[in-house]
Amino acid sequence: MNYSQQRNCILEIVMSDPVHPTVEQVYEKAKLRYPNISLGTVYRNLNQLSEHGILKKICSSYGSVRFDGRTDAHFHMICKDCQRVFDVELGEMLGLEDKLMDKFGFQVSEYEISIQGVCCDCKK
Amino acid sequence: MNYSQQRNCILEIVMSDPVHPTVEQVYEKAKLRYPNISLGTVYRNLNQLSEHGILKKICSSYGSVRFDGRTDAHFHMICKDCQRVFDVELGEMLGLEDKLMDKFGFQVSEYEISIQGVCCDCKK
DNA sequence: ATTAAACTTGAGAATGTTTATCACTTTTTA
DNA sequence: TAAAAAGTGATAAACATTCTCAAGTTTAAT
Questions:
Q1: A114 in B contact zone (CB under 8 Å)
Q2: Cα(B85)–Cα(B21) distance, rounded to whole angstroms?
Q3: CB within 8 Å of A87: residues ≥ 6 apart
Q4: CA distances to B97, B104, B123 from B94, in Å
Q5: Which nucleotide has the shortest C1'-to-CA distance from B39?
Q6: Cβ distance B54 to B12 under 8 Å?
Q7: Quick one: A36 exposed, middle or buried, by C-beta within 10 A (0-12, 13-18, 19+)?
Q8: CA distances from residue A18 to A31, B86, B104 in whole angstroms, order as listed
């Protein structure tokens, strides 16, 4: 990857504020600095940055794709109403539901762990 | 929800085989029994069934949306190559990476837990 | 059984999201 | 500083999902 001003700006937008923005939100913020930036450029760069493991793509059943500047192990709480994504640290998972209610006022309704990797068939 | 043959067929397709099919895969299987079934009907019913908690929608960063006939607490392993989704039981999570390698030959590269619910702002 | 209301369907249009294309510009390399 | 490689904006294309609606089913109350 070569350097580019636009990609750098996109990276900063996602890294600097843990709001887990959607593509559209990144686009709106990027336009403040580069008024002519195209939506395609935002998609292209978010995807490249994810593929290089610099950002993480988050997909949930509720709402649209979002991006996360944190790539270390942690969890996400996703609100079914506003679809915002909140970070949860590993330790906060012990005694899950009560703890999340006490700490964040977040009412857990279901959760899902997904593990990415390569299956035994594809490793061949 | 009224009864309908098509919805029932769609439900059976997802419930009977733990392949976690995509919309398109459900559509292809449903056409064997209802050759005129429309893709819109498949989307409509998969969404209704998920909204009623009868099926679960699975979204991952790799590949497309899939549906799961199991709604009890369990995990998913998603292959980055073939994008298939495999079930993992809760107990199998202790000593995660080694255990999954021993048991399934699945090489874990990253994982993510997402918790759905309602945040403190939206509860107001 | 008959009927009315509510629900569902298939077909296709409409919308929304994401990727591809291409002439041009920027960055890197040597 | 020139050539190669990579990136950009604009727009078209591809793909995914939802919407619309006339016609057909299912349900519940006569």
A1: yes
A2: 9
A3: A18, A70, A74, A75, A76, A77
A4: 9, 14, 34
A5: C10
A6: no
A7: exposed
A8: 19, 31, 35
- Residue A116 token pair: 């990415």
Q: What is the pLDDT of residues B14-32, one digit of tens each?
A: 999 999 999 999 999 999 9
pLDDT attached to residue A68? 96
Mutate which: A115, A118, A124, vs B, most B CBs within 10 A? A115
**DSSP SS3 for A114:** strand
pLDDT surpassing 90 at residue A73 = no
Is the pLDDT higher at B43 or at B97? Answer: B43
Q: What is the pTM of this model?
A: 0.89
Do residue B115 and residue A88 have CB atoms under 8 angstroms apart? yes
What residue ranges in A73-123 does DSSP mark as E strands? 75-79, 85-88, 107-118
Q: Calculate the average pLDDT of chain B.
A: 91
Q: What would the pLDDT profile of A86-118 be if each residue is shown by its tens digit?
A: 999 988 888 888 999 999 999 988 888 888 889
- Closest nucleotide (CA of B3 to C1')? D26
